[in-house]
Amino acid sequence: MNKLGPYEVHPFADAFPLIDGEEFGELVRDIKRNGLREPIILNHDRTILVDGRNRWRACEEAGSDPVFETLPERYTEPMILDLIVSKNMARRQLNPGQRALMALEYERFYGEATNAGRPIGYTTRPVNADSEVIVADLPPANARPELAPPVERKSRERAARVVGASGRAVQQAKAVQRDAPDLAAKVRAGEIALDAADKQRRQRIAAMPKPEPVVTKPGPVMLTLRTHDGAEVPYPKPAAKATFNESKGDGISWAAWSWNPVTGCLHGCTYCYAREIATNERFRPGFPAGFTPLFHHERLDAPANTVIPAAHREDPAYQRVFVCSMADLYGRWVPQEWIDQIHASMCANPAWQYITLTKFPDRYVGLEMPPGAWVGTSVDEQKRVRIAERAFQQIDGAAVKWLSLEPLLEPLEFTDLSMFDWVVIGAQTETRQPGGTVPAFAPPFEWVARIVAQAREAGCRVHLKPNLFNGRPGMQPIDEYPQQ
To answer: 0.85 exceeded by the pTM?
Structure first.
């Protein structure tokens, strides 16, 4: 609020322009001749000047003592607003644009008053400019507020009605005030008509560069996956149907496809290539739980959806699918329902040769296997030899029973290899684990040769992985010389 002498000026009253020039000089001369004939109006506690800014200024200029009228305490804020409007509109010849802008000010102050919970009283009658009696506009002393006429719900309509502006003009004024405040100031000063200001506003907007349309892409549909211990993991639903992943140079030399309806493992093998991939920041989107075991139920239809490319239909490797290359599907922590659902999918699509591998081969016993399944177990240390031999003596119904010795970390002694159809031997390649780099390790030639010889005696087929020979890390050759 602005101040005049000791009084704060009501902000709505301050919205009306002050008089100046000859008009103000005439008011000063009149007060010198006749004194102040119309009192300056204060609120009930005489702290706020409600009406009479020009009269106060003229009294100071004329050296005349001002005369005051005090509003009763029951005068509500809406009543004060109406009083300010009636006093100023009676004195001034405002054009339609100025009235519309005053209606905006009224609407704002009226809305603030009602939203603040102030009681809404009675509207005032217009007061004649020459009237000196303000209390004539008050309701009777015995009037009850609950009998007061209802106030219009929309403050905009009320503002237009009280100020005497048309609804269209108020809408125009609001647009000009919002988009072109400089033009609104000219309308308020009477320098330009409201219609002309609104036309200039629309021309400005038309001349502005049009913003590029913002295309909002819908967010992905999210699936809820579950870990082995029941924790929920959000995962974007793939746009395409689930299919096998084609194995291109990823270390799987005996199958053209991999399929991972489960990812993650709790074995804790220090050399694990799968953990290296799953914890790599580059592949984070594909492994939302890191290397924690996670069931991807949305991948169960991959056997039904995958088609062998025409160029590879005669290639046996394209009939083979490594199941859960990024997990141990048969680990102790894996819920049986995961295994049951995956086996049901395999059995429903028996044309593929499904290749499985686990360090817990006892879980194979009693499972229904598809007719072309290659059932395998992984042995990297001597302590796993007995577990593998015991379990595979009980397994029936598999097309191929195989033994993976990758990585071969120590010389192994088997009692009997005749229970296996195929033996795979490989080295340990270098991996970058969360705790640091795990170096490569290649078994000595004798370890490999001994296993190959025993496998031949048992009638097993043998596959030596390329990492035994290609220098990554490469098998350690015999390098002996005769004694001198």
So the answer is: no
- Domain layout of the chain by residue ranges: 3-207, 222-468
The separation between CA 336 and the C-alpha centre of its own chain, rounded to angstroms, equals 36
Three-state DSSP state, 407: coil
- The 10s digit of each residue's pLDDT in 261-315 is 999 999 999 999 999 999 999 999 999 999 999 999 999 999 999 999 999 999 9
Is the distance from CB of 463 to CB of 423 less than 8 angstroms?
A: yes
Whether residue 139 contacts residue 66, with contact meaning beta carbons closer than 8 Å, is answered with: no
Quote helix, strand, coil % in the chain, to nearest 5.
40, 15, 45
Alpha-carbon gap, residue 442 to 472, rounded angstroms:
9
Whose tokens are 């989107």? That residue is: 285
- State both tokens at 231: 């924790």
Nearby residues of 277 by Cβ (< 8 Å), 6 or more positions away:
283, 287, 326
Pairing state of beta strands 48-51 and 222-227?
unpaired
Express each pLDDT in 168-179 by its tens digit.
888 899 999 999
State how far the Cα of 469 lies from the Cα of 453, in Å rounded to an integer.
18
Give me the phi and psi of 390, to 5 degrees please: -65, -45
Show the tokens assigned to 404. Answer: 């993976």
CATH fit for domain 222-468, picks 3.20.20, 2.60.290, 2.60.120, 1.10.8: 3.20.20
Q: How far apart are CA 358 and CA 455, in angstroms?
A: 20
Q: Compute the distance between CA of residue 283 and CA of residue 277 in angstroms, rounded to an integer.
A: 7
Placement of tokens 């199941």 in the chain? 323
